[in-house]
Design a protein that fits this description.
By secondary structure, this protein is of the alpha/beta class. The protein has six domains: about 240 residues, ANL, N-terminal domain (Rossmann fold, 3-Layer(aba) Sandwich), CATH 3.40.50.12780; about 110 residues, Luciferase, Domain 3 (Luciferase, domain 3), CATH 2.30.38.10; about 110 residues, ANL, C-terminal domain (GMP Synthetase, Chain A, domain 3, 2-Layer Sandwich); about 200 residues, ACP-like (Non-ribosomal Peptide Synthetase Peptidyl Carrier Protein, Chain A, Orthogonal Bundle); about 150 residues, Aspartate Aminotransferase, domain 1 (Alpha-Beta Complex), CATH 3.90.1150; about 220 residues, Aspartate Aminotransferase, domain 2 (3-Layer(aba) Sandwich), CATH 3.40.640.10. Helices cover about 35% and strands about 20% of the residues. The strands form 13 sheets. It has a nine-stranded mixed β-sheet with strand order 2-1-10-9-11-12-13-14-17, sandwiched between helices. The longest helix is centred in the C-terminal third of the chain and has 20 residues. The N and C termini lie far apart (about 85 Å).
Length: about 1200
């Protein structure tokens, strides 16, 4: 047991492994984490039991490699895979080292430095990350020596091999690497006890209960994201909603929308996150929010600003946010996470102090808004089991309340020290109070004071820069700057921040060489580029000063504080002074565009104008100052918006010339009509000289642009327009291949560029590709791929008409005719559509021949069963042969409902639906659930015509190799976030290969990426599993893990038609939609009765299934004993035997027919020509003699010389 227990704690685990095992035992089916794949709609979940199972599997895998006690890098993009890998390390006794995966075309130096410092032996990650880093690993010797493992490929049954290692609260759990100086990262050693104690503190001070829920976007490799967003909810035993940091930065609205949607009670982040919400969420979007459930809005990781609290409260109070939800707190990685915090559901403590006294190291209270005073936000009180002192950093003496000194911390949450750095550990973790001898304490390096028991943090002893929650060492930036251009003097620069308008701004001051002459703009540009590339930071101001003028101490150290003062007082000896403009937003918000603007642009010498509509206004007004409008650009540029209001602008043949009627910027009157309702589609110039444009409404979540870009230059210029607005650069200064980093844009500003394009074009770019945008051409390609998904096509030239040629000249028919000729010449044309007669099973007649039938899919042999016949006759007598109508027009009979209920029960589904064909089933499902925002992936070889409804719905439809789930994983990892919904369609049994789909691996991808899984059970119902229930029973998996099952009633159920079974909401959408399943003539009651009888037999006569599976194994064994290549799984009744090319396969089938065996030749284009095969299908009514006849006949053809080395000869069959 741990040596502490906080109020309200009823369960104190000894270590984190026991914590998760406890949740898996007592809350197995409760969802532990939900990840919003796209930041909005698409969700993947993991339960406590599943997380425990994955952790045991990964842990057992690591243990099998003898890695206990070693270090493992965790290089994962945001998602649930990281959580499983982190706990997998804990389960194996391996020390986890979370690191953010590298970006495209970026150096691995930081990862290399961490790996080398941690002495890592293995890197756990995804297959996609491994492919990304493989080309770069040769540059980094230590990374090359690592064993790289993709945890999606854990060998099966590893969870059963796991054994809990000998761990305790003192065991090292993971290394949290801090933002140390370049090349010298420091790993904070956190043990199980540190993490559990801090989790207990958070639960205590936040007043967490299991009835609450959290929303987190903070990165999992960051202490706040890992401990607060992952360990804390597990400690309490409640769910947590996670999203990618990029998803939040791209659209801050997503964060608050998730809080609204999931009724979250706890969420938060650094101060900048709240500022971003105020700045980037327009009023129209705010109105969609309900933040009344938000009880704890924590604010930490960087200075908490009073102005931010007031601005955020003012902006979001009308939408349910309460000021008392704000929870400022203080913490650091060396103390695990939290150190001090206030009282939940109480207003934040804001006090005013005299500024000049603060600068002298004293905290003297002042009245609110008093002259010479400034507000500070309290970060709470000392928490249980902890001690916090204010100590003079020079003489190590304790200071009284009201005096500013270094913050020292002592308690069970203080880390063990720095990994392999005993000297640094002794300095930072070995503080002793000189006058009392108390210690050891953690010396935080932060400055602060206590006032009435409240801790106020005032700064850092070191000049660490804190921007957007990141700690950046100024010497790192200074080193980057001095190497960025040869005119910059070495060791003669300073980097620091200043506060302007409630925000921290990054400033660089640097001396230039005496040889520097003339224009210094290249130096300024080089600095901006270098800092953006190396640190992902945008420099807000640069001052280049005369050599020898930077303030220094007597020991020649740069005085950053004096440089900062000189910047603020503008007293530096400046040669060049550059500041990023901040007078207006870089872009008009979506709300501004939607409420006030509509732009029209006409190519080839027609007018370009911008229109502004106010409430009740008609016609065109003046464009608003400060916003770029189409008229500011060269002729031919376009700005396109989606919407529902249209208007007409009379134009002349000249661009903005004297002949233009009432141009928008002329101030003259306009004959434009008031906006009228339209269909929202953009139209081009009309013959009457009018141009019909489109007004923009505020986009709803599902709204997309119908914009069509006639040529690539339009799109390229649009991207550059937005870049110019953001940069306020002249057009000649940037081009498509300009590296974005050269312009000094950080990741947040790139987000702003992307968001503006999304707002104009509709749709969204997946967050994971944003770091990959290196140039504006990359942006254009990303927009083309992810946003402009529906393209128009130009009309034929005027006056040109088409000619329809006779069908017998069409290439499709000529190819068919050639194939028929070949078959006729070989005497094999009857194989195109064979006609069978007689009993069908196990023997039938082909013409005059009596043959053993291996063509049929009546696997259980129920087609002529007496009970099936009896049920059909009764149905015929009672209802007739036809249903006489659709299910909505009197076509249903009681037998339909009985069969649907019986099917749902047999398959373990919530609901089931009947239809006349599988095509009708697919039409019903896809027409109701798919849109152009969705993606359907189907395995190769599956009938594409089933997916016609998906194409009609506008969805993207693509195939993937069914045997290559690694490729499916890679495609999902790359493209999943582009789409609202993804449907993956697979066959439980491949009718060409006789293989069983690897359902457990597929479900692992489903949990990871969040797609709808649709499984075709045509060949597995009645053939797989101990009782014939199909693929889920075969693998021992709960049926509800499969979203939808489709299948034919014409195989094991001895009938015709098709069925759909699965989750009730999806089945009901298909049942009550307007698609063929609802409108076609309902399934014949005779077929429904036959299928119902077959289900009864399947349940009552398990020996049939046992005989079928025994026959399948025996036939495979017989072919294998004869030396043939047999495909598929042993228990599957489809037995393909590879024989040679396509024509030879037909010839060989003809030879089998001559010997009384009927089997199906399968060749090109269905399969590769060199993999042509004969397909045999077993049934339960085949005798052993029938099976031996098939194998002996094929072997006999080989002995007779009809096959050479496993392939048939090319000569035609005799006779």
């Amino acid at each position: 047991m741990l040596p502490y227990r906080l109020p309200g704690m009823f369960f104190v685990p000894p270590d984190l492994v026991e914590l998760l095992r406890h949740r898996a035992t007592y809350q197995p089916d409760e969802i532990a984490f939900t990840f919003l794949v796209d930041g909005e709609d698409q969700q993947v979940h993991i339960t406590n039991a599943e997380l425990d199972r994955q952790a045991r599997a990964i842990g057992g895998w690591l243990q099998s490699m003898g890695l206990e006690g070693e270090r493992a890098l965790l290089l994962y993009p945001p998602g649930l895979e990281f959580i499983a890998a982190f706990f997998g390390c804990l389960y194996a006794g391996v020390v986890a080292v979370p690191v953010y995966p590298p970006r495209k075309n970026r150096s691995l130096q930081r990862i290399q430095a961490i790996a080398e410092d941690a002495q890592a032996r293995v890197a756990l990650t995804t297959q996609a990350v491994i492919r990304r880093v493989e080309p770069l690993i040769d540059e980094t010797p230590h990374l090359k020596q690592l064993r790289w493992l993709a945890t999606c490929h854990v060998p099966p049954q590893m969870e059963d091999r796991w054994q809990k290692p000998p761990i305790s609260s003192e065991t090292l759990a993971f290394l949290q690497y801090t933002s140390g100086s370049t090349g010298m990262p420091k790993g904070v050693m956190l043990n199980h006890g540190n993490l559990l104690h801090n989790s207990a503190l958070i639960a205590y001070v936040f007043e967490h209960t299991r009835s609450g829920i959290g929303v987190f976007w903070l990165p999992s490799y960051h202490d706040m994201g890992l401990i607060g967003g992952i360990l804390q909810p597990l400690f309490v035993g409640r769910p947590n909603i996670l999203m990618s940091p990029l998803a939040f930065l791209q659209k801050p609205f997503r964060w608050l929308w998730a809080i609204t949607r999931f009724r979250a009670t706890t969420s938060g982040g650094p101060n900048f996150a709240y500022e971003l919400c105020v700045d980037k969420i327009p009023p129209a979007q705010r109105a969609q929010l309900d933040l009344s459930s938000w009880q704890v809005a924590f604010n930490g990781a960087e200075p908490v600003r009073a102005e931010t609290i007031e601005r955020f409260t003012e902006a979001f109070a009308p939408y349910g946010f309460r000021r008392e939800a704000f929870f400022p707190c203080y913490g650091l990685a060396e103390a695990t996470l939290i150190v001090t915090g206030g009282y939940a559901k109480q207003p934040p403590v804001i006090r005013w102090f005299l500024t000049d006294a603060l600068e002298r190291g004293r905290a003297i209270p002042a009245p609110e808004h008093a002259p010479g005073a400034r507000p500070l936000v309290g970060c709470g009180q000392t928490l249980p089991d902890q001690r916090v002192l204010i100590v003079d950093p020079e003489n190590c003496r304790k200071l009284p309340e009201g005096h500013i000194g270094e913050i020292w911390v002592q308690g069970p949450s203080v880390a063990m020290g720095y990994w392999n750095r005993p000297e640094a550990t002794a300095v930072t973790f070995g503080g002793y109070v000189r006058d009392t001898g108390e210690g050891p304490f953690l010396r935080t390096g932060d400055l602060g004071f206590f006032h009435q028991g409240e801790l106020f943090v005032t700064g850092r002893i070191k000049d660490v820069i804190i921007l957007r929650g990141r700690n950046i060492y100024p010497q790192d930036i200074e080193l980057t700057v001095q190497h960025s251009h040869p005119w910059l003097r070495p060791d003669a620069g300073a980097a620091f921040t200043v506060e302007q308008d409630g925000r921290e701004r990054l400033v660089v001051v640097h001396e230039v060489e005496r040889r520097a002459r003339g224009h210094l703009e290249p130096v300024l540009q080089a600095i901006r580029k270098a800092v953006a590339e190396e640190h992902d930071l945008a420099v807000d101001a640069i001052v280049l000063i005369k050599p020898g003028t930077i303030p220094k101490t007597s020991s020649n150290k740069i005085q950053r504080h004096a440089c900062r003062q000189g910047y603020l007082e503008r007293s530096l000896a400046a040669l060049a002074w550059w500041e990023r403009p901040e007078s207006e937003p870089a872009f008009a918000t979506e709300g501004q565009i939607g409420e006030e603007y509509a732009a029209v642009g006409v190519e080839s010498g027609t007018a370009t104008a911008a229109a502004r509509f106010g409430p009740g206004r008609k016609g065109l007004g003046h464009p608003q100052p400060g916003l770029h409008v189409a008229g500011d650009s060269p002729a031919g540029e376009r700005a396109q918006f989606s919407g529902i209001s249209t208007w007409e602008v009379p134009v002349s043949s000249s661009t903005g010339g004297p002949g233009a009627k009432a141009p928008a910027d002329s101030g003259g009157s306009s004959s434009a009509a008031a906006p009228a309702a339209g269909d929202g589609k953009s139209q081009g110039p009309r013959e009457d000289g009018h141009f019909v444009g489109v007004g923009r409404k505020e986009p709803q979540p599902a709204e997309k642009s119908d914009g069509w870009w006639g040529n690539g230059r339009d799109l390229e210029e649009l991207v550059l327009q937005h870049a110019r607005r953001l940069l306020r650069h002249r057009s000649e200064e940037i081009h498509l291949d300009t590296p974005i980093s050269e312009l000094g844009l950080d990741s947040l500003q790139r987000m702003e560029l992307v968001t503006a394009l999304e707002g104009q074009l509709g749709g969204r770019l997946p967050p994971e590709i944003l770091p990959e945008l290196e140039t504006f051409r990359d942006v254009v390609h990303a927009v083309e791929r992810h946003l402009l998904r529906r393209q128009g096509k130009p009309a034929p030239p005027p006056g040109q008409t088409g000619q329809v040629s006779p069908p017998d000249s069409w290439p499709e028919y000529t190819r068919l005719a050639e194939r028929i000729k070949v078959l006729q010449a070989a005497g094999l044309s009857s194989w195109q559509q064979p006609v069978l007669d007689g009993e069908i099973l196990p023997q039938c007649r082909w013409g005059s021949r009596q043959v053993v039938n291996f063509l049929t899919a009546d696997y259980l042999g129920l087609g002529r069963d007496p009970l099936v016949r009896e049920k059909i006759i009764r149905a015929l007598e009672q209802w007739g042969s036809s249903s006489g109508g659709s299910s909505r027009s009197g076509g249903r009979r009681p037998v339909h409902s009985q069969l649907e209920l019986q099917l749902a029960s047999f398959l373990g589904a919530q609901s089931a639906l009947l239809a006349g064909s599988e095509l009708a089933i697919y039409s019903a499902v896809f027409s109701e659930i798919l849109s152009p925002a969705d993606w359907v992936l189907y395995e190769s070889g599956y009938p594409r015509w089933y997916l016609a409804a998906a194409l009609a719905a506008g969805a993207t439809v693509e195939e993937f190799p069914g045997e290559d789930l690694a490729q499916l994983e890679e495609r999902l990892a790359t493209n999943r976030s582009r789409f609202r919904r993804v449907v993956v369609v697979v066959q439980a049994i491949s009718p060409l290969e006789g293989t069983v789909v690897p359902l457990p691996e597929l479900l692992g991808l489903k949990r990871r990426f969040g797609f709808i899984l649709l499984v075709d059970q045509t060949h597995s119902l009645g053939t797989l599993g101990p009782s014939g229930r199909g693929i889920a029973e075969h693998y021992g998996i709960k049926p509800e893990e499969i979203d939808l099952v489709v299948g034919s009633l014409g195989t094991s159920l001895a009938a015709g038609g098709a069925y759909l079974a699965g989750a009730k909401p999806l089945v009901e959408l298909a049942r009550y939609g307007t698609t063929p399943a609802a409108q076609e003539v309902a399934l014949s009651p005779l077929l429904a009765a036959a299928a119902l009888a077959a289900l009864e037999i399947l349940e009552d006569q398990p020996q049939r299934l046992a005989q079928l599976q025994a026959n399948s194994r025996l036939l495979r064994q017989l072919f294998a004993e004869e030396g043939f290549e047999v495909l598929g799984s042993p228990e599957v009744p489809i037995v393909p035997v590879v024989v040679g090319n396509s024509v030879q396969a037909i010839q060989l089938a003809q030879g089998l027919l001559e010997r009384g065996v009927l089997a199906l030749p399968v060749g090109h284009p269905t399969v590769r020509d060199d993999r042509a095969r004969i397909r045999f299908t077993c049934t339960a009514v085949h005798s052993e003699g029938d099976l031996r006849k098939a194998a002996e006949s094929l072997a006999g053809l080989r002995k007779a010389g009809r096959m050479v080395q496993g392939s048939p000869r090319t000569q035609p069959a005799a006779g």
